[in-house]
Design brief:
The chain has 482 residues and is α/β, with parallel strands linked by helices. The chain contains twelve helices and 22 strands. The chain has a six-stranded mixed sheet, sandwiched between helices. Strands 1-11-10-5-7 form a five-stranded antiparallel sheet. Helix 11 links the parallel strand 21 and strand 22.
Length: 482
């Protein structure tokens, strides 16, 4: 509990009145001073009782189902006063780093009646994509006279997943309407022809399956709903895998590699689903799987993929020249030119990653990250050809992608690697010196060697930059350029 500026002023007046009573030997000054002291003591004891019996419940609700970068996100905060006395306070909903208030205000002054609920709303704008953690709501409670204040933080943890931009979803719809996906002889299949394929087996019914495919004879024998499965020739089950390693998260120019990869994954998934390819998506880093959706052709599969890709961490803005990326390096550590290039948070994240690797090794697991995802998917499929589309810069996860390509070749599956080439996402220098030219030459040489290694392992390969769109990538795949 603290004394407010008004309370401090009252104490100053008391001191002045005591001095005046001593100098002028006047009883009236003593009476005034005693009255002010009694008011101060009474308000403090009463406020202490109110704070001790205070029962405040705070809840926060994000009104927008999908949040996008640089667009307003509506938030509603409710304060429930469970006390028998009114709650007079200042409420502040602290915004995450990199956010600004768009409309309304995240700070409100109110007097909440006893045993009632009061709310206020506002909207904020996030600068970039990623998961935003909103902290507790700060409540600065004051007494009736305004002489004392008490600050407390009401728990109201909320996580908001912000997409890159709204245009990405509209672009996905337009590309899916115009383009069709053909990969190595896999042709486009009309929707009507799907019902005429040969019946291949049955499996247990899952929500989203078509009612006309239920096998009623099997229901009478087994006592549970079973649905028919068909052999869909001409389609290819696909998994879109997004690399979220540290090198992908670093951004030094307008377009971040991870943001571009996320947009491409969303749009490629929409194109594949519109062409009746069973599609799933996953996000991985050096040591673990961040989120994953199994491949399916269910009705709301695209929404599930969209929700999974929201869990991808945001890009980290770095200064030009703060980090030098070595092409062909598989280690998550990046060679830096200055000690300020790697912050405490990055060192802690890397140490956590090392702990994760040690834990996996102690548990007897050899495959982590990308290799673990692909092996688990292939094992759960138990045969059948699949296509894995990996979007990566091949810096932190280079060895994992090469091992995944070898694994796909041994198991009879296909893999397509889309490399977000790092130099094309960096800010172009106004003048290129000899050292810069040598670095670019070494970087391209390493990228070419990596491409040759992947092609020898049986993988298809495309190198892209920030200007490459999903439509151009799909056309390149259809022409057999990959």
């Amino acid at each position: 509990m603290e004394t407010s500026p008004l309370g401090k002023m009252l104490l100053v007046f008391c001191a002045v009145f005591v001095l005046a009573a001593y100098l002028f030997m006047s009883l009236s000054w003593v009476v005034v001073c005693s009255g002010l002291v009694l008011i101060f003591v009474y308000s403090r004891r009463r406020f202490l009782s109110e704070v001790f019996h205070s029962q405040v419940k705070v809840s926060r609700e994000v009104l927008d189902e999908l949040a996008f970068a640089r667009e307003p996100v509506a938030v509603k905060v409710e304060i429930a006063n469970l006390n028998a006395t009114p709650l007079q306070a200042r409420f502040e909903d602290r915004l995450p780093h990199g956010c600004a208030v768009a409309s309304g205000s995240n700070v409100a002054f109110a007097k909440v009646p006893p045993r009632s609920v009061w709310s206020f709303a506002y909207s904020f704008v996030a600068e970039r994509r990623g998961r935003l953690a909103m902290d507790d709501v700060v409540i600065e409670q004051s007494d009736v006279f305004g002489l004392h204040t008490h600050r407390l933080e009401a728990p109201a943890k909320t996580t908001v997943a912000v997409h890159t931009r709204r245009e990405s979803l509209s672009t996905a719809r337009e590309v899916a309407r115009r383009e069709h996906f053909e990969y190595a002889g896999v042709t486009r299949t009309p929707a009507v022809a799907l019902r005429e394929f040969e019946h291949s087996g049955i499996r247990e019914y899952a929500p989203g399956d078509k009612a006309r495919d239920i096998h009623w004879k099997a229901f009478t024998r087994l006592g549970r709903l079973m649905t028919k499965t068909y052999k869909r020739e001409g389609t290819l089950e696909t998994m879109v895998l997004v690399d979220c390693s540290r090198s992908m998260r670093l951004s030094s120019h307008k377009v971040a590699k991870l943001d571009h990869a996320t947009d491409l994954a969303i749009q490629l998934s929409r194109v594949l689903l519109s062409n009746f390819h069973k599609t799933g998506a996953a996000a991985f880093d050096e040591t673990s799987v961040i989120s994953m959706v199994e491949s399916s052709l269910a009705k709301h599969q695209f929404e599930r993929i969209l929700i999974a890709l929201r869990d991808i961490p945001g890009a980290v803005k770095v200064d030009d020249g703060a980090a030098v990326l070595e092409p062909g390096t598989s280690s998550p550590l990046l060679r830096t030119q200055s000690p300020t290039a790697v912050g405490k948070g990055d060192r802690g994240a890397f140490l956590d990653a090392l702990k994760g690797i040690t834990a996996h090794r102690n548990a007897g697991m050899q495959d982590i990250g990308l290799e673990g995802v692909i092996r688990d998917v292939i094992t759960s499929r138990r045969g059948g050809e699949m296509l894995f589309v990996v979007i990566s810069d091949l810096i932190s996860s280079r060895d994992a992608v090469v091992s995944a390509a070898s694994l796909c070749r041994r198991t009879g599956n296909r893999i397509l690697v889309i490399q977000t080439y790092d130099d094309w996402y960096s800010k172009p220098s106004s003048c290129l010196d000899v050292a810069g030219a040598e670095r670019l030459c070494c970087s391209m040489s390493g990228a070419v060697n990596t491409e040759a290694t992947l092609r020898r392992a049986g993988a298809s390969f495309i190198r892209i930059g920030p200007a490459d769109t999903t439509a151009r990538i799909v056309r390149s795949i259809r022409r057999g350029v990959a």
